[in-house]
Design a protein that fits this description.
Length: about 70
């Protein structure tokens, strides 16, 4: 079981993993969009891309952005 003094490190570790996952998903979306820039997408491809974008947003929403 983790100790209270380990909490910050554990939270930072999970946060880093989520950031990595988000970056990977966003990069994949960008690559897909770039490769399909001049192609009419079939409906199922649009649905798959929309689902991928929704997952990326869900990951991004886990940790709120700092208020400036």
């Amino acid at each position: 079981m983790a100790k209270l003094n380990e909490l910050v490190g554990l939270v930072n570790e999970v946060n880093a993993k989520l950031d990595k996952a988000k970056d990977e998903v966003v990069a994949k979306i960008a690559a897909l969009e770039a490769s399909l820039a001049n192609v009419d997408l079939p409906a199922d491809a649009v649905e798959a891309l929309d689902a991928l974008k929704a997952k990326a947003q869900t990951l991004d929403d886990i940790v709120p952005d700092p208020v400036e």
